Amino acid sequence: MSFIDRHLGPRGRETETMLSTLGYDSLAHLIDEVIPSNIRLDGDLDLPAPLSELEAQKKIASYAAQNQVKHQMIGAGYYDTITPAVIRRNILENPGWYTSYTPYQPEISQGRLEALLNFQNTVMELTGLPVANASLLDEATATAEAAVLMHRANRKVKNGFFAIDSRALPQTLSVVRGRAEALDIPFEVTDFSQGLPEGDLYGVILAAPGHDGEVRDIEPLIKEAKERGALVTVAADLLSLTLLTSPGSLGADIAVGSTQRFGLPFWYGGPHAAYMAVTKGMERNLPGRLVGVSKDSAGKPAYRLALQTREQHIRREKATSNICTAQALLAIAAGAYAVYHGPEGLRAIANRLHDNAARVATALVATGLTLVHENFFDTVAFEAPGRADELVAKALEAGVNIRKLSADRICLSIGESHSEEVLDALVNALGGTLDEAEGYELPSELLRTDDYMSHPVFHLYRSETSMMRYLRALSDKDLALDRTMIPLGSCTMKLNAAAEMEPISWPELAGIHPNVPADQAQGWKALIDELSNWLVEITGYDAISLQPNSGASGEYAGLRAIRAYHEANGDTQRTVVLIPNSAHGTNAASAALAGLGVAGVATAPDGSIDVEDLKAKIEKYGDTIAGIMITYPSTHGVFEEQVVEVCQLVHDAGGQVYVDGANLNAQMGLAQPGKFGGDVSHLNLHKTFAIPHGGGGPGVGPVAVGAHLEKYLPGNGFEADAEGNLAAPLPISQAMFGSAGVLPISWMYIAMTGAEGLRESSEIAILSANYIAKKLRGLYPVLYAGETGLVAHECILDLRQLTADSGITAEDVCKRLMDYGFHAPTLSFPVPGTLMVEPTESESLAELDRFIEAMEHIHAEIQEVIDGTVTAEESVLRQAPHTAEVVTADEWDRPYPRSQAAYPVPALRLNKYFTSVGRIDGAGGDRNFVCECPPMEAFDLEAN
Known about the structure:
This protein is α/β, with parallel strands linked by helices.
């Protein structure tokens, strides 16, 4: 059986049954009715014939074999670490963790929310700051976010500039430059050894340690900056903070950095979870997601995402950031690493790294090299006039990559897996003898003396048995794709096949530092080049960058390319982006981040772009129009007939067309945005191309462009000179290929599906959505459809009249679906009071029918409220979800039977999922915001 037969849910007679229900005799006939003829692809995509799972794995193994795995001591933001097998197998390789969605529905997400809270608390404890988020994309973009946050939050100095440490990581400097220039925020790269620069400083960004490993006393700088009214950010190595004084205790307002060295492989640059922690009062401006603690309907502590009104989907262009996908799965793994090791284990690792670095420093100084800095953590820099290339080459002969800082300087970073043999081989290759360290102890005034990570969660799980069971207990609380369909509109929660996932753990792919010499990463180059060519062919564009590590980052990169294109043509006045009012909030937030203004375009009654309003906006904004951002198929789940006209109108006005690729799963092999009018699109590899969502990340959002925009794609920030000059535009994330470590998943998916399989995936996704729409239309009106009455790959179920008649809301339906063992559809987007359903191509007819049955039963329960049989407040819907504890309690005083609460349909008696908490009080959690792990007694039923 071919892979595509394994990937698709409906097959054979199931497909025929679904088509018959819709009144069509063939899939081709249905697709002809759904997709406008003027955008249809003529012929098949030019892709290789599909491979079997075994053939694909053999081919990707041949690419992996072309890479050379060395001992990595390059450092520069990426450090050698060990992924504990219990974490790799039970989190990173476990579909219960990697196939889950962002925990917007908290009752079915308690396990991953607790894991993310562990991550937050690790960060808070080590940075000494009281609030941390649930991860960001990478250290460089986190630092850029901090620069913008300080600009927004500083009420003392409103029109000044920020100063950033010249010792920051090279890629951090590049990303921060790009972000600041896009927003027209003044900044200065500063050698803080000469003190603070003169002028009105609103913010200061300090590196601790510096990129060359120097550990410096930054407390006087922080104190002086605060006296001048500036806010202070410290970019800190989190592991070093197990030994060094925390930024919070030094007076910093913000701390940022990476958690890569908490058990996450190099993965040729990513994905790795970044962190940000802030002082009290900044939480409502903090970018990204925050896990908070509230209570459920029984008064028990329960976790949820807090303060959501900060986010882009609410505030659009006024949002705190454009972050949509973060790095949740990697944050969960990093948090688990902290839980598994605990404070004493982390401190022991840090001490061992420092001791080994001191031993290497002692040995190499004895050979005649000069130590650049006496104080260091794990990274040591040496002065070697004219010998840097020679020393790098000698280290390589010993199988070790070290870093060349200049013709006269080298540095090396000691890692967790670097054994005595490795250190000895390196030192011998450089002409020395490894022995005990002589000096180089960190000064006592730089060391922390406070306790940290005292919560029981960081002390309970030392044995692998206990850790394995803890992770299993957490995953049992959640609903992921390994249990049920996740019918989320706009998010395409399709199969993440095991064969696709396996290669990302291979050392030949996972063990490559992003800054290795090119000849050591030939396999990565071959894979990336081939995947890039395939994506270009699928989309119909001319070039692509794989750098953006989220969909929103892809939007930002595409909009920056549009802006740069206009500026190069002398059209500097083109600064307005037209965005339909129905668009995802990241569109507007990304435009603002790129320094562009936003003008909304109305939505017509059928859900399409209001062409007359578009013409009016074009007339109004004229030659200030930079472009338009459209989602296709539309945010309302419809292939708009007038898309070509919309593109042409904007082109005639001198603008560029950005086609949001969120819904590409309805187009593969059927239409190409680069051919029907698009100039640029981002693609969501974590949606259309099978990379899993991981509870909210990793995401990959490559940006594809026409030939005229290719020169404006982001470059490699590590290669910029001291003034920030780079042959290509400045980067938008810190690694040239972003989250390269998960690209093998998409490579495997396309290699195994081929052109025909991709087209079939789109066709079945469209068929499944229309089947659900047809079956439920009589109970829940389908809000939008094309001229033929058909939808694309998703449909919007309108509950507003039912709500008006009964008081039962769309949110009530979402909570009740949990009792049926389903993750809820997308709630109230793009239209309040509705549910948007996307079944994808991977769900079988039996699963689709199970969902339809649940929705039919829920409608009957709503009808009981309408008929007056029960009030809305006392109904099974308003009381949902029902925990096992509730339905097995000795007392039962509800007007419906326990059986209806727990087993509303017979099949649930064979396979039942219970939420671990009842309905959570979201508003109460925001009013009483708590983002730290509650004490164990909070869960003691006797004490409550």
